[in-house]
Amino acid sequence: MYNAQEVAAAGECLRTARKVSIVSHQRPDGDAVGSALGLALALKAAGKQVVVALADGVPTTFRHLAGADEVVSQGDPSADCRVFVDCGDVGRGGSAWQADWPVDVNIDHHKTNTRFAAVNIVAPHAVATAAMLAELLPAWGFPLPVEAASALLTGILTDTIGFRTSNVTADALRLAADLVDRGAPLSELYFKALVERSFEALRYWGQGLSRIQREGGLVWTSLTLEDRRISGYHSNDDADLVGYLVSVRDAAIGVIFVEQPDGTVKVSWRARSGWDVSDLAVRFGGGGHVPAAGATVPGSLDDVQRKVLAATRALLNA
Ligand code: 5GP
Ligand code: MN
């Protein structure tokens, strides 16, 4: 499952470090925030000095997690152990980490991981990076305080969409159950991470849903800067709407196009079982998992939509 040598080397780096710098990806999701905070809280409980850096900060959805208030926007390249969690490549750190700064430990579950660190623990079978840490931290001798368990459970909950993805195994459920045993409040964390939304986010969904389109097994829509202005939604993401596109009966792949202020378009794919969208995302300069992947593509909304839909159709028709 894991490479024992890499696991030992990562444990050594963390155990001997006085100061640890943790980075996760820009536009962080629950696994980015949960795995970064879970690792940080476990290390802090062991007396380490820890800095967690996220280029875009902690989204409102995850601000209830302990340590969220101390997250900074830049990592510390002079730390004794420099760790990346939930990042497929070093560029995913965005402005939190310069691409030429060395990384000691890379802990991730993306199939497309480029193994950019000195020590790489990459487990594509893991449901979340947080699930890897729920297993690795106790094995390294770091006990999990309840706050760390809560952060890690949040990462598992969001990456599995509440244990709904097809990669959820009995082992993954046992890891989650272990976190609940350590005091993580499952229903409260589930509600915060996956159910509760802002009024503005629902209005934003309304804009996107009003233009939803279908062609065979392909379902797509877009979200524009104007949609965000009209709805009062202030993040440059899709507010998780893409997951609902692929819930359409007989859909195979859902795609959402989110217009960005810098002349690019954030594309997200979601696929039902039997389809792999990760290679498609890599082709457009992004990455991800078999059933969920994304890329940021330069160009106008119309152009990017045309190119990406053509490539996605080709995949469906292959
Ligand atoms: P989303 O489309 O929801 O942003 O992301 C779906 C999955 O694809 C996540 O696991 C995310 O980390 C990955 N992903 C999204 N955008 C990119 C990207 O630009 N590069 C890489 N390497 N992975 C991405
Ligand atoms: Mn993840």
The gist of it:
The chain is α/β, with parallel strands linked by helices and 318 residues long.
Strand order of the biggest β-sheet = 6-7-8-9-11-10
Counting helices, strands and paired strands, the structural category is alpha/beta
Radius of gyration: 19 Å
Full CATH superfamily name of the largest domain: inorganic pyrophosphatase (n-terminal core)
**N-C termini distance:** 32 Å
**Judging by the overall fold, what is the CATH architecture of the largest domain?**
Alpha-Beta Complex
Bound molecules: guanosine-5'-monophosphate, manganese (II) ion
Tell me the fraction of residues in β-strands, as a range: 15-25%
Q: Number of DSSP strands?
A: 11
CATH fold topology of the largest domain:
inorganic pyrophosphatase (n-terminal core)
The outline comes out as globular
Low-confidence runs of at least 5 consecutive residues: none
Q: Which range best describes the helical content: under 10%, 10-25%, 25-40%, 40-55%, 55-70% or over 70%?
A: 25-40%
Average pLDDT number: 97
Q: Biggest sheet, in brief?
A: 6 strands, mixed
CATH class of the largest domain: Alpha Beta
Count of helix runs: 11
Order of helices and strands: HEHEEEEHHHHHEEHHEEHEEH
